[in-house]
Amino acid sequence: MLKKTLQSLGAKLASSTSVIHMKWKSLITANSIRRYSNSNSVKIDISVSTPREKVDCLVIGAGVVGLAVARALALKGREVLVVDSASTFGTATSSRNSEVIHAGIYYPRNSFKARFCVRGREMLYEYCSKHDIPHKQTGKLIVASRSSEISKLNDIMNRGIQNGVDGLRMMDGSEAMRMEPELQCIKAILSPLSGIVDSHSFMLSLVGEAENNKATFSYNSTVIGGHLEGDQICLHISETKSVEEWDGRSILNQDLVLIPKFVVNSAGLGAPALAKRFTALQSSGVVPSAYFARGCYFTFSNTKVPPFKHLIYPIPEDGGLGVHVTLDLNGQVKYGPDVEWIDAPDDISSFLNKFDYSVPAKRAERFYPEIRKYYPNQKDGSLEPGYSGIRPKLSGPHQSPIDFVIQGEEIHGVPGLVNLFGIESPGLTSSMAIADYISTRFLR
């Protein structure tokens, strides 16, 4: 894949190889090696025989946010290269979520999450309508099942109003239950602007638009680190197969060094670990700690008619929005996600998305009591394991949620680098707004 990418970048590499080698021979001897140590003591060797190529804009990560950024940069006439360690786009968090279009209710006023969710939701609905992306504005009910939750529901309502979310309405439980006869609650917020989207079709469309505007995609290509030469960032790229076969002890060689004018670290679950492997950032103190929360989804197997027409959300819990009801575009009901805090993997495993995505069937036992708080007719044995996803969080258990973190040169001091950290929910909804912000705020 890397060889094909080099070819797509232009035949100029072949003609300039001797010039590149002459340049570097003037700096280091022909047989010498520059060795870089990363924060986890992994040694990376860069020799004069390693191909080097300058690129205009580089996006690390082909999840929904990376794809939206690539499209936005390409539409501005920039030459864009997207690299991802997987064999195709959207294989991690972007394909393992609820596929909900959020309205922008839950997030602190003027936060990135609030601003990007509200704007991103508008952009997403418009984009889906224009490009025939399957989606549906289903509406959502956020419900209080007991009186102790009413104050929290009022707080959610006030926050949504502060964030400029239109159409929110507080209603008594009796009215909500007339709308949804299977529901049990004492009070609820109606959010008519919430919905669902076919995330794969959306991502496929973003890829198509980016490619139509001359963006290039290099899959099976893993960014394993980077260093600075003057004010230029040099990124170390290896074939994913080579990284997978690495024994964890020997020197980790790279197949290519890319020198971009502008780079966006949109590596999702691996973004903080990757940033810490950029030598210029290792002692900077600007890379936040990463936390990981796995969430499982179960499908409602014993029903032909969905019990609900709206999305149903309980009061948020620590680390998430609670075990909620989501409808897919085929009418299937799924519940989730729950929250299970897991340990961080080693860097290489995070780059390769080597997380445990299994869904133990016995975990359904935890779902039934949560679901019955608002849907008492949920029968034992009616849930089947679906799938799981992992949230790339910046706060741990019992800590206050942290906003999206978007770092430019003014924070970390590296020219042309933008780091995206903690892009969890509402990342899908916010993706196009994040891309617009990056392409207008940081692009020179």
From TrEMBL:
Q: Which reaction does it catalyse?
A: (S)-2-hydroxyglutarate + A = 2-oxoglutarate + AH2
- On whether Oxidoreductase is a keyword of this UniProt record, the answer is yes
Cited InterPro entries: FAD-dep_OxRdtase, FAD/NAD-bd_sf
Name the enzyme group at the top EC level: oxidoreductase
Q: Could you identify this protein by its name?
A: L-2-hydroxyglutarate dehydrogenase, mitochondrial
Pfam families tied to this protein = DAO
SUPFAM superfamilies, alphabetized? FAD/NAD(P)-binding domain
Q: Name one GO molecular function term.
A: (S)-2-hydroxyglutarate dehydrogenase activity
Q: What Enzyme Commission number(s) does the record list for this chain? A: 1.1.99.2
- What keyword terms does UniProt attach to this protein? FAD, Flavoprotein, Oxidoreductase
Q: Residues in domain FAD dependent oxidoreductase?
A: 56-439
Names of required cofactors? FAD
Question: Which organism does this record belong to?
Answer: Acacia crassicarpa
Question: Gene3D superfamilies per the record?
Answer: D-Amino Acid Oxidase, subunit A, domain 2 (3.30.9.10), FAD/NAD(P)-binding domain (3.50.50.60)
Q: Which family does it belong to?
A: Belongs to the L2HGDH family.
UniProt entry tagged with the keyword Magnesium: no
